[in-house]
Write a structure and sequence with these properties.
224 residues; three-stranded antiparallel beta sheet; binds 2'-deoxycytidine-5'-monophosphate
């Protein structure tokens, strides 16, 4: 059978990764977390003291280091930089604060888009990100645009931070969520926007199970 793709896009904190991972598990397909790929490069910038706005320096980082991805035992993507597993550092606040500047560079996006398409060519995937339905996999069998109210997204981010041992005040997170949406939607290359043929789902008052079921129904209707 030809590999099939599901694209799940939307703003930060809408619940994409939780939902995408569960859909992938139910279908026994691969989950590809493209945000983790952008975060790997931001991690390298943070570690090397590279200015994330400087396209040339960021490109040099891409040339100098080996970045690899592997499916982890929990179905998530594990990210390796020069052979060591850095997955657990990708959501640290210092990495999060650099990532949207890193993701604005055309050279970075081209490279990651290539890697993402290579995954989708080999495996049936559930891929989440910002530009999967619009740019990376325009022919995905099912496209979902998952959103939620900013306050709800900020609360989810806050509890993620708490689990990692960081206490960040809620109003600070609301501000950074709004700021990141703005940067992601206004950037010139591959901005965050809903594909015309994507189904919009607002997760604010829904459980994860409800959303997963809705997506599985879309898959059943569109994939045969
Ligand atoms: O989903 P996330 O928070 O892990 O994404 C991290 C950053 O990467 C976010 O600022 C948007 C960017 N990103 C992107 O530009 N394109 C993607 N396909 C995935 C993420």
């Amino acid at each position: 059978m030809m590999p099939v793709s599901i694209a799940i896009d939307g703003p930060a904190g809408a619940g994409k990764s939780t939902v995408a991972r569960m859909v992938a598990k139910r279908l026994n397909w691969m989950y590809v977390d493209t945000g983790a790929m952008y975060r790997a490069i931001a991690f390298l910038c943070a570690r090397s003291g590279v200015d994330p706005e400087d396209a040339q320096e960021v490109e040099a980082i891409l040339q100098q280091h080996e970045i690899e991805f592997e499916e982890g035992s929990d179905g998530g993507l594990r990210v390796f930089v020069d052979g060591s597993d850095v997955t657990d550092h990708l959501r640290d606040p210092d990495v999060s604060s650099l990532v949207s500047a890193v993701a604005a560079h055309g050279a970075v996006r081209d490279r990651l888009t290539e890697w993402q398409r290579a995954f989708a060519k080999r495996y049936s995937v559930v891929m989440d990100g910002r530009d999967i339905g619009t740019v990376v996999l325009p022919n995905a069998a099912v496209k979902v645009f998952l959103t939620a109210q900013p306050e709800e997204r900020a609360r989810r981010r806050q509890s993620e931070f708490l689990q990692q041992g960081f206490h960040v005040p809620l109003d600070e997170i609301v501000q950074s969520v709004i700021e990141r949406d703005r940067r992601d939607s206004e950037r010139e290359i591959a901005p965050l926007r809903q594909a015309e043929d994507a189904v919009r789902i607002d997760s604010t008052n829904k459980t994860v199970e409800q959303i997963v079921d809705q997506i599985l129904q879309l898959v059943a209707a569109h994939v045969r």
